[in-house]
Structure formats: C-alpha cells, structure tokens
Amino acid sequence: MKKVEDYVRSIPDFPEPGIIFRDVTSILQDADGLQLAIDEMQHFVEEVDCDVICGTESRGFIFGMPIAYNLHKPFVPIRKKGKLPLETVEESYDLEYGSATIEMHKDSIKPGQKVVIIDDLIATGGTVEACAKMIERLGGEVTRIVFLMELAGLKGREKLAKYDVKSVIRYDGK
C-alpha cells in the first residue's frame, strides 16, 4: 500500500541549487494520492474538538474544503489582502524577501469557537502564525494546525510552538 509521500514529486535544484522542491501537484493529479492525503489530514482533525475549519489561500482550500465537508463543519477561507468583500481582520507577516498580508471576514469566527487550520506546507511558519493571530483576535481558539508536508529544516514548527501542530509528511531538509 502506498503512502502519501510516495505521490510527492521531488524536484532537485529548484528554485535554486541545493534545494529540493516538494511538489504537491503530483498528489493532486492522482486520485488515490489525493484521497489518501485528505484522509490522513482528516484523521488529525477528527482527534480534536473543532467547530470550524480554516484554510489558507490557495492550497489550504484544496485540502480544507473536503475535510470540512466530510466532517460537516463550516469552512472559513483565509485570503490574500483585497480579495474579500466584507469587513475584514488582517495580519501582516514577513516572507524571505519582503512581507505579505492575509485577511478573513470579521464575522467568520465567533468568540469561543474551536478552530483547526489546514494548509499544505509548513516552511517558516509565518503564514499560519498570522492566521492563528487573526483567529485569536476574533475570540477563537486554535485547537490544532494540520499540514500535509513539513520542511523541518526551516524550523516553522518553532514559530508555532504554542500550538498543537501535526504534519502527514516530514522532510528534514529545507
């Protein structure tokens, strides 16, 4: 029986020499790989108390939506700045070469709701840390953060140390 990591395509020297790019599209392009990835991530969600599932744009949507559907939970999209039509809460964070801002609707999380955040990859942890800050500002409690893949060499888990973080696949490098 294949494991999720068997569906990941590894591309050496991209985007620069010495880096191995872990390509999630090879999972998405295989029905068995996609189903296995969602099932494995969903298992981590089922283990905790959860009222709402949040997913980051865009691959957090891909994995978060079917999990929310399967568990009959609402799904809250966390988007890049400027993509949502109503009043939002936003959070900026640093990237390797610059910064970015994400936002979510101000009414999407109610005080006291227990929230699971879903994303495809944890690298430095900045995006999901910004998500957690917004959820907490709205009165929600982050009960777990679930990733498909973790690049442990970038130490993103350290940035998220106060949260319960799970990843289906862990790569020791960057």
UniProtKB/TrEMBL annotation:
Residues 51-166 form the Phosphoribosyltransferase domain. It catalyses: AMP + diphosphate = 5-phospho-alpha-D-ribose 1-diphosphate + adenine. Catalyzes a salvage reaction resulting in the formation of AMP, that is energically less costly than de novo synthesis. GO terms for cellular component: cytoplasm. The keyword Transferase applies. The gene is apt. Pathway: Purine metabolism; AMP biosynthesis via salvage pathway; AMP from adenine: step 1/1. Its main location: cytoplasm. InterPro entries: Ade_phspho_trans (IPR005764), PRTase-like (IPR029057), PRTase_dom (IPR000836), UPRTase/APRTase (IPR050054). It is an enzyme of class 2 (transferase). Keywords: Cytoplasm, Glycosyltransferase, Purine salvage, Transferase. It comes from the Bacteria. Its EC number is 2.4.2.7. Homodimer. This is Adenine phosphoribosyltransferase.
